[in-house]
Amino acid sequence: MGQKTHPYGFRLGVIKGWSSNWFAEKDFAGLLGEDITLRRYIRQRLQRAGVSRINIERHPKRVTIEVHTARPGIAIGRRGAEVDKLRDELKALTQKDVTLNIQEVKKPELDAQLVADNLARQFEQRVAFRRAIKKCVASSMRMGAEGIRIECNGRIGGSEMTRHERSEPAGRVPLHTLRADIDFATSTAFTISGTVGVKVWICLGEVVDETVEEQQQKA
Fold this sequence. Notes:
The protein is of the alpha+beta class.
């Protein structure tokens, strides 16, 4: 079960929150499709900025979008020119008022999406895959991750047949522990010989309720 359940969805409502916050009785499908379009457009538009995650909050006539990025300077642009331009484009796309907030990811080595995208980009540049995987694992552990696991599948290194590569065990990545904060992401490398899928699990520690912790200390 732990292999097949999405680590984020498994912990949703327990230690993880929703990335889209809104409620609709009538046009649910339309708004969901709009969310997907917005996320796809922002990721494509800010490809060089290293987008980690996008949170969307809806109000009756306004959409608030929070973009977490590793390079906020590229996303904001000189004197906020890029942000204003992107905001206008999103307004035209949604036909609603858009509030755009850019948040910086302080430690990109501890963000699964950024690690997966970085690894996929290295595969596309024909970097030695084993060295690239080891380097990502080492940098994440050095920055304070409790554990990291990386799996790659596809035509790795230009091989004729599909190969499956897994990183050496580093730290602990508990898949069934709900209080364990597991950051999970996937990315795809489009190489000359074919595609390579990348999966990254990063354990950031445990989220323990303060009252539970106090009871355990008393016991």
